[in-house]
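Contributing: when you submit paired examples, paste them exactly as shown. First protein:
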Amino acid sequence: LSWVIPFAVLFPSLPWLLLFALSGFYFSAWVQFGRTGEWYQPIAYLRLQWIPFYLIWIPQFVRGLRKLMSHQSNQVVESISVVIPTLNEATHIRTCLKSLSQSSTPINEIFVVDGGSQDETKSMIKGFPVRLLESKKGRGYQISLGVKACRSDAVLVLHADASLPPDVAKTIISVLNKNPDVVGGEIGQRFVSTTPKPILLLVEALNDFRATWQSGSFGDQGQFFRRASIEQAGGFPNIPLMEDVELTAQLNKKGSLVFLDGGLQCSARRWEKDNATERFLLVLSLVVRYKFLKLIGKDPSKKLFEEYYRS
């Protein structure tokens, strides 16, 4: 079984993790040896072990070849911008901006893109070196507008209820410069909760798993990317919802993504306000339906946006 381990470590992805788990079928050879005196693995067990692996691995292998054939040398990253979409975030936006003001590496630009707040969000950003943009409601629309205004080499998308330690911007720039094939990634988040719930630990674990093994992330994990890469991909997804899922799909076609394994703290307010289990199932349902409908050529983002904000 040990031959699988180097592949799972050096090429961390779902196919190799799955193969490592399914390699337990090798032990069927012991059973056959005990029954017949012959050392072999029945064909049924071989199929159970290898078919799922190849079904998942082959598409990733093909995408990897495409990346290799279309590889472009990425430029050195010297500056970073931050885009923050807001909608009635008066309670949290100052904490978010304070954390950015304490960055050990100066942040070149900070854009707050408001989607029509009815509270004091806009007045709360006064005194901070930020540029306020106004957009129609829809997180994807707001972020897209902010990214278009950015002029830095890299862009970090940060939710208004999040805060960062001082070294994150420095780490992002360092990682992108040390790994020219990396086009973006995610910081990784932990919830700040007044009433800790097991479901929050599950969400954190699943987010980390997806980032590590599937090169995927959600917006509250702190997504970042090279500005040139997203421009080559056609721009930031200009859709009201699921922009984070679509962003990951676009970046995966351009190069590798990296997971920085934490550092971002995110408020658990929505999970505390709503039934956490119901919210978890809702988000899961929205993502699965979005991916399925996109697969068959439909764009369900507006419909899912209405459903999400109606719930």
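Second protein:
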Amino acid sequence: TGDARLILRPAPGQALLVGVEHATERQRGADSSNYDLSPNHFSAGRITRAAYAQWTGDAGRASWSLGSRYDDNDVYGIFRTARVAAAWRTWRGARVRGAVGGGFKAPTFLETFSGAFSVGNPALRPERSRGWEVGAEQRLPGRVTLGATYFDQRFRDLIQYTFRAPTDPNYFNVAAASARGLELEARTEPTAGVAVWGTATALRTRVDDAGFQSGAGATFVNGRRLLRRPPLTLSAGAAVSRIPRTRVDLALTHVGARDDRDFSTYPATPVELAGYSRMDVGLTCTLADGGGFWRASALTARLENALGAAYEEVANFAAPGRVVMLGLRVGTLR
């Protein structure tokens, strides 16, 4: 991938970003099965050329962001996306905001190109989405901020597999789904160097068009929830930076029960994944406060699932237990 961008300042408080991008993707592979022991070779590629622009600015109590992107792919063609967002500072300490936009997800190589076990469909279109959100936040005395956001998303042209004839494509743009919900958040700084936050997200998902699928064991069932999307997610955390050049982060997350399928049977059996709670801890040590080569560099450590909670994010696949990660971030510019 190659990317070039330019930032212009047309007026005080405004910025205009324009850019171009060129991306080349290639995939090669070889596979076999007990039905065909000889290796089956796969090789394909595609090129995307894109141009994009974004204008952001402030004027009085208002702020805005306008962006668009133009993608031209030599396989699935031209796709345009855009996003508009605006915010307005109403009364003291309060702000309302809204945004609307769209996006897309390109077909995978195996969905577009023929392989050993499926026939690709070069006429596939990208999966597309559009969504909007409105929200508000209020700062209160004591360095407390409360916020709420309602969002609505629609997904169309979702790609599904089906079998028709050995020479016919197996993948088509047929399915549709939606998701909407409400997110509440609160943040506070009870004392210098200490920040505490919490969020709650209520999510409602729905299959609007099951496409080729039918029956209780299908992954898409008209009117039912999307798989592995929790209706309720709670999270809370704290960040402490009272020690010079040191920051400690603590995060607690609770994920509610989700629908899934047990694919060890045929047809698949509907199951419900139990809710779970986990704790993550992070540590960041900045190497230098002032100038020099090591400014903006830091040692990092993170302990995920610190209490060793046992849970499954996908049916029959246990999530990792405790995970320790150590890192070094090197930078000389800020």
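If you have annotations for the second protein, write them as plain sentences, like these:
The longest strand covers residues 36-59.
Residues 71 and 261 are 36 Å apart (CA to CA).
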